[in-house]
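CO-FOLDING WORKSHEET

Operator: S.A.
Ligand of interest: NAP
Run index: 278
Mode: holo prediction, single chain
Checklist:
[x] sequence pasted
[x] SMILES validated
[ ] output reviewed
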Amino acid sequence: MAVEVAGLNPSDTKIRARGGPGAPGGKEPPYVAGREAAGTIIDCGPGVNGLRPGDPVFAFFGWFARPGGHAEQLVVPASMVTRRPAAVPVAESAAVPLAGLTALQALRVLDVPPGERLLVTAGAGGVGHFAVQLGALRGLEVVATAGPDNHQFVRGLGASEVIDYHAPDATGRVAGISYLLDAVGGDNIAAYQGVLAEAARVVAVAGLPSVIRADVAATAIRCRPSGEELAELADLLADGVLSATVQEVFPLARAAEAHVLLEGGHVRGKLVIQIGAR
Ligand SMILES: NC(=O)c1ccc[n+]([C@@H]2O[C@H](COP(=O)([O-])OP(=O)(O)OC[C@H]3O[C@@H](n4cnc5c(N)ncnc54)[C@H](OP(=O)(O)O)[C@@H]3O)[C@@H](O)[C@H]2O)c1
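OUTPUT RECEIVED:
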């Protein structure tokens, strides 16, 4: 595929910070970052059905693809590639695959019954802003955490309540909650575990605490590439019931600035990198 725009994710900055050698998958320099991309099909291999040269597509191609998405051209397994909705700007589509699939797969693991309360931490971030929307679409009462500047944004995504995680009573505000989708990390789950309901369920996308309450069912997930699940997200995007927020589009020449901004930990939605034709 010819890459037009590619998303930037914390995994990219973490791998870069580790310096390549020794990183998972043996990513020796030169290493091309990027785990997702949106663009156009240049050509298809033998046996590929349902996709044609010229199709607008997007993909999350897993953790170990070489090169990554921050390249002009990529070879991607057809099973990971999905036609992206023509009406959605390519920069927004590029923001979806990794964070959107992570949110979708995390919600599937939690399997929250409709009408139940779900706590999404980091509701303004890449994963969180999709999780809030997908949770609300499933008919859940979504409570999210975010800094004060993001409360209006997260409410607009469908959260019925937004909690400032800096507040001293932040955890007490969700006392008795049964479902937690955490996108912050193990220490954050540790902070909330004392207020979770008995036999609560937790799904962690950024790691589990070293100790977890015995009655709590906690699962750490790692996003799986799936063209089929990405097609579900594409349908929601095309229907206008799911949206991707892109805080900023960086030209490839300024990718280093995008890494620094993302590492600051306060991006709203996603950052993406413009690679090819605009
Ligand atoms: N397991 C997987 O497959 C998988 C997939 C994707 C991501 N991840 C991991 O999941 C984590 C989140 O990824 P992401 O792309 O969503 O990150 P992100 O977009 O960089 O997260 C930034 C957001 O986090 C919020 N935030 C920062 N500290 C917070 C806190 N203590 N409590 C609540 N919100 C807080 C910020 O909101 P404010 O500005 O309002 O503070 C900001 O909107 C990363 O560690 C990433 O590596 C794992």
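REVIEW:
The chain has eight helices and twelve strands.
The longest helix spans residues 97-110.
[x] output reviewed
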